[in-house]
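User: what does the whole thing look like in 3D?
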Amino acid sequence: MIKKTVLAAALAAAFASPAFAQEDVRAELRALHEEVQRLRAELDAMKKGGGAQAAAVAAPAAVAATPATAGSPTPAASATPTATAAAPAAVATAPEAAAEPATKLFGYGELSYSRPRGDAGGAQATVGRFVIGLSHDFNEKTRFASEVEIENAVASADDQGEVEVEQVYIEHQFSPDISGKAGLFLMPIGLLNESHEPPNYYGVHRNFVETAIIPTTWREIGLGATGRTGFGLRWDAGITTGFDLTKWDSTSDESIESPLGSIHQEGQLAKAGNPAFYGALNYNGVPGLNLGGSLFYGKVAQKQADFASPDASLTLGEVHARWTPGDWDLSALYAIGTFNNVEAFNLTQVGNPYPVPKRFDGWYLQGAYKLWNSGEYALLPFARYEQVNTARSYDASLSEFGYTGRPTDKIVTTGATFQLHPQVVLKADYQWFRDDSRRDALNLGLGFTY
Amino acid sequence: MSHRWVFAALALTPAAIVLPAHATVYMTAEASRAVLFPQATHFEAVTLDTTPAQQAALDQALGIATKPRRVQGWAARDESGKLLGHVLVDEVLGKYELITYAVAFTASGEIKGVEVLAYRESHGQEIRLPSWRNQFVGKKAVDELTFGSGIKGISGATLSCRHVTEGIQRLSALYTLTIAPR
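Assistant: Here's the predicted 3D structure for the full assembly of 632 residues, as structure tokens:
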């Protein structure tokens, strides 16, 4: 384009001018050439200066460039990054949207201190999670989003921390109401899984039901679709990887702490012989109210040749409600999981303490109240009652070996969140285990999301 | 002549590269003003800038320190030239992405309607639902427009709802300080 216009100018000059004027034309061309070089250098410098800066300068320049082509005598003024040139018409295209960079950084962090009752030696402090998220908008419909998480501060062969990719997926907007995603993404199951940043939940630690029954932070590799209707119903459906029952360790405490947490695959060389399916519905048609439920089903033997229960399957269902009248925030959730066709495998594990349960379930009720606020500060005391049973029952075939369902854990958690800012919270709570007071604990936490 | 073309070409080149942004744009601001004031026959552009004194009054009304921010929009008039109200267009950061919206004020300063023009987050498109937006209608005072007690959020999109509510609360206070006295 530059060459063309310069050429056109030169040609026009050559035809229109007598020979003695050619010297002037050459001089002008030289000046023009130098000007172009200078502007190029400036542009390069601007681009190197960062996308945001380049965008901020470029956007108003584009607006001002229109009058410039129409004959403005001072084109250099078009580079002034002021919004005054943006007539009301520019409002329509949201002038500042262009200044927003396409690549964004976000994330969250949570630190905690926990002290079991009467056991100072068991007190522990940790950087539980530190997450860095990165997203990039390729265009108005396609984007990439990711989160990389470091758990417990240090990860190496000798340490207990973990580094994990918590999410990495491509999302595409098919229409204003329907989007699809492909990659490693969070399951739309429960109240907590998809919005698990510390300011979004009460208590230093995530609740037991959405940790022990619904694993956390639960993600799978696959394809998913999300749609919304005009009356407030959101639906989600997808096909993904599932759990790997061949990892079940009937001697490990982890199997009883979180049955699904012990056999999740997290996108790490996941055995994918069997697909899993999920569906979820959430109603948000009344402001402040959310009613929802979801179902997840998949075979869990993953076609592993020597596994004793090749048809083993898992079904997990959940219903939830959240209501925020006035300064209250009330929620309830019930989740139930069942393993089917696991008898053959369990019979090979007889003698070990933790065979695969037939059924595991839990529920909670939670209430929080905004007791005080001033500006962005707020104090929100809360209380939660939970019942969790990670092995409510076993297959009938195991009963002759003396296996019976485990007792239900009943936990009361009460404490408060102090908001320094809606995205920065200090938390304190105390947890009572109704049937095992040795697990009672005081917890202190710090959380933020950005 | 050729100078201008070169400058125009240079000015447009970077713009063409950086302007596209991920956005689900539901409505242009022009379309929204017609939806918000269907009986209006013409619109006059308005630009709101705060004087330092107005900015201080705004911060006092909101109870937090805010940055001065230019807001643009229109005054809506009917055939006879009677002022029907104003439409102001603004945007806030949702969770990670910008949300663009238009708010209509009646001539007496109450909110007449809210339209979401562009929403770019993965979650929380429910703020487009009439039931959510209608919470603002008829409200004016800062207290009525407080997130939580005055305006309810949407589970899973709390930050987006909070930020849009705070943005509208600010526009309402700005309206009271700048347009209402005119």
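In plain terms: Residues 5-21, 49-98 of chain A have pLDDT under 50 and may be disordered. Chain A has two domains: 2-92, 104-449.
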